[in-house]
Design goal:
Elements (H helix, E strand, L loop, with lengths): L2 H11 L5 E5 L3 H10 L6 H12 L8 E6 L1 H4 L9 H7 L3 E5 L4 E3 L7 E3 L5 H10 L4 E8 L8 H20 L3 E8 L7 H21 L8 E4 L14 H15 L6 E4 L6 H15 L8 E5 L1 H11 L6 H18 L6 H4 L5
Parallel strand pairs: 1-2, 1-10, 2-3, 3-6, 6-7, 7-8, 8-9, 9-10
Antiparallel strand pairs: 4-5
Helix pairs in contact: 7-8, 8-9, 9-10, 10-11, 10-12, 11-12
The structure holds 2-O-methyl-1,6-di-O-phosphono-D-mannitol.
Amino acid sequence: MTIRELENTAMGMVAPGKGILAIDESFATIGKRFQAIGVDSTEESRRAYRDLLITAPGIGEYVSGMILFDETLRQSSAAGVPFRQALVSAGILPGIKVDKGAKNLAGHPGEQVTEGLDGLRERLGEYHALGARFAKWRAVITIGTDLPSRACIEANAHALARYAALCQEQGIVPIVEPEVLMDWENDIERCYEVTEATLRTVFTALYTQRVALEGLVLKTNMAVPGKQCARQSSPEEVATRTIRCLRQAVPAAVAGIVFLSGGQSAQDATVHLNTMNALAGPGELPWPLSFSYGRALQDPALKTWAGQAANVGAAQRVLLHRSRCNGLAALGRYTNAIENELAA
Ligand code: 5MM
């Protein structure tokens, strides 16, 4: 696998008007999501739900790749087609979450470090053979009183860089995801500062580990105030602070940047992405800005489905609508009128 091949895959992941759908919830997280709609999390209910998402008609027009959980990569649709094959037929790149989750960081109460490097080379080799063309590793950075610590940022940056180097060695494009959480009472400036410091540290580690930036996609949070902050920000403020932060800390060689939604409402996540692309204008930024949303793409469809086979078609239409809205937002062409089309 050459750098050029990795670069081609990465460019496909951030193709104009397309983004990534994250459906890689671990057992604990999908259990929580299902509990909220009164559905038991079993191998079959998870398969049925992921079937709905993966086989939604037309989804490949707006979604370039889907991030799967290990179990899903090995499952098949109701029609008996392996999901990885269904994705390729729809023109969608199969991706895989390879981290083993965020664990408590010793000596640092309230902070976590993501684990999963042991045996990663072998697991990546198997995932590549199963058809995965990109991978994801998520690190979590918590803002709080005296948090984050330097140790937390550095430990996570080191692990992200080691993971990314192993991915490229195995012909897989790494999505590097340092997520600064938006759960606290901090203002947007604090989020900006922590995000900038985190990204600078991550890119230093990537450089040290000799990761080729052209064959990598960054998945990051936007600069937003914490959910408990009394002063919330306008879409223009979120967009200008986020773009400035990325310009300061992300090298131009990176293939593309995709955002996580992090607990933003589905519509806020779309509006924020659209505002950034509309403000910047075509060709103004060194990298395409798109989406890799989990909850902001899935939540409306999950609620519509509610575990009922009879709701699959309606849930797929809701998913397609959100995907289209975000695909347009990746071009700066989303409008209120488009948002309201589904209801109409
Ligand atoms: C889809 O959720 C992903 C899996 O999370 P866990 O490993 O905790 O179960 C998650 O990594 C997700 O891809 C990112 O957080 C982005 O999702 P959101 O919902 O923030 O857009």
